[in-house]
TrEMBL record:
<dbReference type="GO" id="GO:0003697">
    <property type="term" value="F:single-stranded DNA binding"/>
</dbReference>
<dbReference type="GO" id="GO:1990904">
    <property type="term" value="C:ribonucleoprotein complex"/>
</dbReference>
<dbReference type="Pfam" id="PF12829">
    <property type="entry name" value="Mhr1"/>
</dbReference>
<keyword id="KW-0805">Transcription regulation</keyword>
<dbReference type="GO" id="GO:0000150">
    <property type="term" value="F:DNA strand exchange activity"/>
</dbReference>
<dbReference type="InterPro" id="IPR024629">
    <property type="entry name" value="Ribosomal_mL67"/>
</dbReference>
<keyword id="KW-0496">Mitochondrion</keyword>
<keyword id="KW-0689">Ribosomal protein</keyword>
<keyword id="KW-0687">Ribonucleoprotein</keyword>
<dbReference type="GO" id="GO:0005739">
    <property type="term" value="C:mitochondrion"/>
</dbReference>
<dbReference type="GO" id="GO:0003735">
    <property type="term" value="F:structural constituent of ribosome"/>
</dbReference>
<comment type="similarity">
    <text>Belongs to the mitochondrion-specific ribosomal protein mL67 family.</text>
</comment>
<keyword id="KW-0804">Transcription</keyword>
<dbReference type="GO" id="GO:0005840">
    <property type="term" value="C:ribosome"/>
</dbReference>
<protein>
    <recommendedName>
        <fullName>Large ribosomal subunit protein mL67</fullName>
    </recommendedName>
</protein>
Length: 156
């Protein structure tokens, strides 16, 4: 019966090997997920989206903009980025997160036109010179898909 069970030293060696492989490959792959309805974007270092990590990346813009937990059926993979080594991947991951934070803070445009809003809303904002309402601002900030694609191109 002892032949069926692996010996403790073999298990220890196997566990150490798996941990070493994980350490070497941590950050080598970046997975980008997109929300189907709001176009919010979440970056992940693992193939499966981690609820805690993903929720920390979603900013609170206003009422009902940050869910208490993520539903996996409304998130789809947007991109998968692979790097030659893990250090390059971790640097790119940090830069992508910084770019997104920058876009979230600098959302006001000089010309007053916002591609995330409908044409009649844009015409009204340009005519009156007003800033978008809170709901419109939330929609503008949460729509991160186009900026993310541009950021990925800039990082690579």
């Amino acid at each position: 019966m002892s032949g069926l069970r692996p010996q403790p030293n073999n298990l220890t060696r196997l566990l150490q090997q798996v941990q070493q492989d994980l350490k070497e490959n941590h950050g080598r792959h970046i997975f980008v997920y997109n929300h189907l309805q709001t176009n919010q974007v979440v970056y992940s270092l693992t193939r499966a989206m981690d609820n805690t990590n993903a929720l920390s990346q979603i900013t609170f813009v206003g009422k009902k903009t940050k869910p208490p937990k993520l539903r996996k059926d409304v998130w789809q993979p947007l991109a998968s980025i692979t790097f030659p080594n893990s250090s390059q991947g971790l640097v790119a991951y940090r830069q992508l997160r910084e770019f997104r934070k920058l876009h979230e803070h600098n959302w006001v445009r000089e010309d007053g036109r916002y591609p995330q809003l409908r044409e009649e809303e844009n015409k009204f904002l340009v005519a009156t010179g007003n800033l978008p309402t809170n709901k419109q601002r939330a929609r503008i900030i949460m729509d991160q898909k186009a900026n993310t694609v541009a950021d990925i191109a800039a990082v690579l």
